[in-house]
Design brief:
Elements: E1 2-6, H1 20-34, E2 38-42, E3 52-54, H2 69-81, E4 89-92, E5 109-113, H3 122-127, E6 133-136, E7 150-151, E8 170-174, H4 183-193, E9 196-200, H5 206-213, E10 221-225, H6 229-238, E11 241-244, H7 254-261, E12 266-269, H8 274-277, E13 284-287, H9 290-299, H10 305-316, H11 318-335
Parallel strand pairs: 1-2, 1-4, 2-3, 4-5, 5-6, 6-7, 8-9, 8-11, 9-10, 11-12, 12-13
Helix pairs in contact: 1-11, 4-9, 7-10, 10-11
Length: 336
Amino acid sequence: MRIAVLAPICWRTPPLHYGPWEQIASNIAEGFVEKGFDVTLFATANSQTKGKLEAVCGTAYEENKELDAKVWECLHISHLMQNADHYDIIHNNYDFLPLSYSRLIHTPMVTTIHGFSSPKIIPVYKEYNDNNYYVSISNSDRSPELEYVATVYNGIKVADFSFNEFPEDYLLFFGRIHPDKGTSEAIEIAEKSGKKLIIAGIVQDAEYFKQKIKPCLNENAVFIGEAGPLKRNSLLGKACALLHPIKFNEPFGLSVAESMLCGTPVIAFNRRSMPELIQHGKTGYLVETVDEAVQAVDNVKEINRHECRDWSMKKFSQEKMIEDYLNVYKAILEYH
């Protein structure tokens, strides 16, 4: 089977710091390479893969602001589509734009819907639903207007995350600095709990950071910026809990699965996919308010960290994801 994996070009694949879609595209490509399949990754030229790499864009447009994102997206996607006949299946991890080519090629295309940035994009998915194969990353993130062939949870590389049975006494916020992610709520939870908070992530909303986050920073609320893979592993593993007080309907939550893989329980606001990721009272706590989160911090010592890791390995490993996608591919190729 010849597989083409289409990654975004917002960031390098795999990303150096932030880039969840690129990370999953990498995990898919590398997972199938390890299984012995002929895999071509379509990504930026500075991306890394053990398979074949096809690129028209030298670097990511978030890493080189002189690049026009739309121009290079068009060149990137069309490069794959012009070579579609070289592959048995295309795995699209680049949202809705590649769908517009799907009636012009013969190769079947699987599209992983990594979330809907807005309801306004759903008409594109509806238009091409009859000749495409959609995969959701959680059961809760499905649109009732679309048909899906499967739900496949995001899979992470187990070897990249070390289990830590003996954490330090700090809480961690790991994600975009943005109101949706609840960074200021994490600070409030930590303060009310009397715990130190480490904040790691890219500043996606500069005004929010300036107004709501920066004034609250002190020796007990520390912002460290972006954290690459090695630093991420250490931060997650040593935390007594990950705070995930999201204020939007998150389709998955990669840091949640990564945290549990390190043995670290997660305290999250009970939105969208969180009940699928977290076993309440076993691998973390699902809460509705800041005060409930504070109570959960007090109870987090009751969580068995081995159970967190076992759960994440069972549900959210790269191996499980590849197995599930292989079943999707086989079913499509038998039908197509």
